[in-house]
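Bumping my old thread because nobody answered last time. Still need a sequence for this structure:
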């Protein structure tokens, strides 16, 4: 069975488990197997209208950033990571980080 790492935001669906095992020859089949054991997981990973992974997720299979998405082949020894997109930070060029602005107004 493939080893699947569950992002922290989805662990409520796996009873808090960070790592689970699932069967399948493709990422799609692995997600379907996961959804049988942890209902609701597929809906959080797959964009139903477009039949692809949600755009805020990056798929990493066996250490390689996958471009094949749901069709990516997996083996019994594969490790699958669904990596959520990161956001945040400051945009100094738009005035988001104005160090010393108070001293300029004095």
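Sorry it took so long. Here it is:
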């Amino acid at each position: 069975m493939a080893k699947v790492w569950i992002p922290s935001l989805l662990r409520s669906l796996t009873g808090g488990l960070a790592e689970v095992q699932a069967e399948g020859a493709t990422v799609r089949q692995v997600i379907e197997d996961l959804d049988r054991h942890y209902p609701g997981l597929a809906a959080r990973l797959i964009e139903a209208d477009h039949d692809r992974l949600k755009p805020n997720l990056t798929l990493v299979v066996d250490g390689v950033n996958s471009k094949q998405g749901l069709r990516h082949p997996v083996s019994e020894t594969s490790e699958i990571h669904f990596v959520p997109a990161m956001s945040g930070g400051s945009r100094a060029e738009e005035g988001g980080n104005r160090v010393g602005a108070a001293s300029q107004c004095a």
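Confidence is low (pLDDT under 50) at residues 96-106. Let me know if any region looks off to you.
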